[in-house]
């Protein structure tokens, strides 16, 4: 079906522009080659190994990368509670998306505040990618970009101060090579 659409489109374009079919096919070939060499953004945290500063109410770190917005990771009320994901290898990170918890009281949604998003090639040596002041609301979808293009294997969320940390999902989008 897609091939038929392209064929009809080329015929109509040929009629409209006066270009012959050979010129149109060359143009199409050039456009497809450019598209093939374009960088691709991919979510790289799903299902990866992760851990957190403490585990409250059996809501483990892995729930933040399970693809389900109805589950969540949850720490106890800690000083600087954190959650870390190991992406398995370094990626050029473009953005981090955080989905706040979906259920609970208004105050529990607003616990997501003063959040540092840190990155690094070691879980012990990280630096600030960006900061979210907040507070967030229940069901908030935060889209955060690093201040600089960052190549990192680990991503860490950490709240400054004494608080609970709980989020439904964390997605890390990175630049990956696209092979044609």
Descriptive notes:
This protein is α+β, with helices and mostly antiparallel strands. The chain has two domains: 3-38; 42-176, Sandwich (Jelly Rolls). It has three helices and eleven strands. The strands form two sheets. Strands 1, 2, 3, 5, 6, 7, 8, 9 and 11 form a nine-stranded antiparallel sheet that branches. Strands 4-10 form a two-stranded antiparallel sheet. Strand 6 (115-122) and strand 7 form a beta hairpin. The two termini are 22 Å apart. This is Fucolectin tachylectin-4 pentraxin-1 domain-containing protein. InterPro entries: BG_Antigen-Binding_Lectin, FTP1, Galactose-bd-like_sf. Belongs to the fucolectin family. Keywords: Calcium, Disulfide bond, Lectin, Metal-binding, Signal. Residues 41-178 form the Fucolectin tachylectin-4 pentraxin-1 domain.
């Amino acid at each position: 079906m897609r091939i038929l659409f392209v064929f009809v489109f080329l015929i109509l374009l040929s009629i409209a522009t006066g270009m012959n079919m050979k010129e149109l096919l060359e143009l199409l070939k050039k456009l497809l080659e450019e598209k093939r060499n374009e960088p691709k953004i991919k979510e790289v945290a799903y299902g990866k190994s992760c851990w957190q500063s403490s585990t409250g109410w059996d809501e483990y770190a892995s729930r933040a990368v399970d693809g389900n917005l109805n589950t969540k990771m949850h720490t106890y009320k800690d000083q600087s509670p954190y959650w870390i994901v190991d992406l398995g290898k370094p990626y050029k990170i473009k953005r981090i998306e955080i989905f706040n918890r979906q259920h609970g009281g208004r105050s529990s949604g607003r616990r997501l505040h003063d959040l540092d998003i840190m990155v690094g090639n070691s879980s012990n040596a990280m630096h600030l990618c960006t900061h979210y002041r907040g507070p967030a609301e229940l069901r908030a979808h935060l889209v955060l970009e690093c201040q600089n293009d960052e190549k990192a294997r680990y991503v860490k969320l950490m709240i400054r101060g004494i608080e609970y940390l709980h989020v439904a999902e964390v997605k890390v989008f990175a630049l990956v090579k696209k092979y044609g």
